[in-house]
Amino acid sequence: MGEVYLAEDTRLDRKVALKILPPQFAEDKDRMSRFVREAKSASALNHPNIITIHEIGEAEGTHFIATEFIDGKTLNQYAKTNPLNFQSALEIAIQITSALDEAHSAGIVHRDIKPDNVMIRPNGLVKILDFGIAKLSTTNNQQGVDEEAATAIKGTIPGMIIGTANYMSPEQAKGKEVDARTDIFSFGVVLYEMISGGLPFEGETALEMIGAILHKEPLPLNAEVPTEIKNIINECLQKDRNERYQNIKDVCNDLKQLQMKLLVDAELERTSSPNRKEAETQILEAQPTAETETRGSIAVLPFTNMSADAENEFFCDGLAEELLNALSKIDDLKVAARTSAFSFKGKNVKTGEIANALNVKTVLEGSVRKSGSRLRITVQLINAVDGYHLWSERYDREMKDVFEVQDEITLAVVDALKVKLFGDEKAAVLKRYTDDAEVHELFLKGRYYSYKYTAEGWKRAIEFFEKAIEKQPDYAPAYAGMAASRGCLWFFGLLPAEQTIPQSKTAAIRALKIDENLADAHLSLGIITFFYDWEWEKAEKQFKQSIALNPNNAEALSYYAMFLGFEERFDEAISRGKRSLEIDPLSPLINMNVGWTYFSAGLLDEALNQAGKIIEIEPDFFGAYWLKGAIYLSEGEYEEAVEELKKAVSPRRSSNCFGGLRLGLRLGG
Fold it and tell me: Which residues contact 535 (CB under 8 A, 6 or more apart)?
């Protein structure tokens, strides 16, 4: 088909994979047709598990396809370095079937599903490649496939075999007309190979292999393979396509059900609990979001202050953050966290670079001009892939209309990203706690100062939250803000517990009495009940509830990861920590929490590496040196520990850092 090169897109400053059709092949109509078909087939699909086609073109007689660069391994390569167990094989299988379901729904049959066409990134995301011999239905023209291409490949020529012998279906091997059930058979072979390490049919040559596929039964799987897996594989590998699964969605659903059963069985064995329903509920609540790349992904940048008054900075940040918080409640949307998105504030960075750094496909940016009670808000949603505007709008309104504007912008973004909002989710996204613009403004000021992450910032934040509550005693977000700010003053060793913990806990409880669905209030209670009260069971419930209410809450994920590390549930802890970094990669706090998670798991090299990343992001953040000091203390390297802990003490006079420094000095003599 061609040669593939790693290349750089100089316009958008990104790595791409460049597939080039050699000049001698360009005159071959069949090869050229398959080359074009590959680009059209994959580009018609929008799914996290299918390779993204950027463009197809020709330059000086050379034909090329530019695709996303997938830094990963083929399934065969991956299995050699990451031995697959039943759970990991099922996770990969579910992603493959999800991708095939998308393709089949668009009228596209891949026809060459095999391990070499399945790539896995280091984070576990599966990508299906090479749609070069895909079959497209003639009814699929709305997906961008022209009539001529569809007609040309409507079926195979009788007796002509297209595909890879080891993985092709019986009808494919006979050169017959194929449909989606062909991919189901090929997938069955791949799943068999993942589970057993070998192929279900034997043959030294391609012809012998085809003969075995046509006339022999699959080789039996080992006795330890769960019966449910055997049944799924058996139904996929039926020689008569009418006796196979009739659509890939059913395969995917059965795989998911089996995955849950195995998880529940493992949980019941671990806890010796007889309650399957309770175990299933706990697993569902604890499941991290599997995909790191969703159908929709967005970063909301801080809005530019176009007003004459620099004091309006807080309002611009607050408006952007309100939009970010609303969008983050959408389960099917990946939203970069505030800390990472706002780290580009005031910097002249290209949209493409921001998107690459935050691993998102779209960026929302805007500006605000505030004059008296009048507002002019300009917003644009940008496709980071090509730099084009997906949507833009200007709003000239009164200050009292700011809530309606926020709702309008949120719904417009959701619509532009083609994200579906269901009833309860839409209500959560559009929920507001006040109609009083002054109360809202006081809250925005409080939150603005809380994000400065200094003792003075948290103290000023509390003042503004208290003023908001004075004007509206049932304003739940202000109570949640107070709980978090007072909790931070204690957590970072800036004020003693007796001056902070009771007030923080009271504020969080008050917030939840007004609205039990405030994720931030649950997080504050989780931190207090774990780090202060040491009531671990209660703490875990609060962490889980916070994450369930806001799946994009990187802070909650990172603190829960620390909790899991203390419980020595290290695999879960590291998974949660990595997920928090995907959402908020540029946050010093999140990186510090993940570093402590590695530290608790005994992964000192990884923890030290995490500390280095913090220093790259924010050299003055005390947490990096605090973490390094703890690592060196644990290894008995007391001089190095003291040196690092002195750096931690310098920018932040925290009792936590002083405690570590005193310990290092004592142990080091």
Answer: 529
Domains in the chain and their CATH numbers?
293-408 (3.40.50.10610), 433-550 (1.25.40.10)
Asked if pLDDT for residue 91 goes beyond 80, the answer is yes
Count the Cβ atoms, other than its own, within 10 Å of residue 60. 5
| Alpha helix stretches (DSSP H) within 294-436 | 313-328, 338-342, 351-358, 402-416, 423-429
Task: Report whether 552 contacts 328 (CB < 8 A).
Answer: yes
Average pLDDT of the chain, as a whole number: 81
Strand-pairing partners, residue 369, are 376
pLDDT band for 53, please (50, 70, 90 cuts): confident
Check 112, 183, 317, 520 and give the catalytic one. Answer: 112
Retrieve residue 26's tokens: 């360009």
Banded model confidence at residue 661, pLDDT cuts 50, 70, 90:
very low
**Predicted local confidence at residue 543, as pLDDT:** 92
The SS3 call for residue 273 is coil
Burial class (CB in 10 A: 0-12, 13-18, 19+), 224: exposed
Taking each helix axis as running N to C, give the angle between helix 604-617 and helix 622-634, from 0 to 180 degrees, rounded to the nearest 10.
Answer: 160
CA–CA dist 307, 374 (Å, integer): 11
Residue 512, number of CB atoms within 10 A of its CB: 21
DSSP letter for 373, please.
Answer: T
In sequence order, which residues have a C-beta less than 8 Å from that of residue 558 and are 6 or more positions away? 576, 577, 580, 584, 589, 590, 593, 594, 597
Residue range 597-616, pLDDT digits in tens = 999 888 999 999 999 998 88
Angle of the 604-617 helix axis to the 588-600 helix axis, nearest 10: 170
3-state secondary structure 140-190: CHHHCCCHHHHHHCCCCCCCCCCCCHHHCCHHHHCCCCCCHHHHHHHHHHH
Note the pTM of the prediction, 2 decimals.
0.51
Instruction: Give per-residue pLDDT as tens, 208-224.
Output: 999 999 999 999 999 88
H or E stretch at 118:
strand 118-120
Rounded CA-CA distance 350/337 in Å is 19
* 30 catalytic residue (yes or no): no
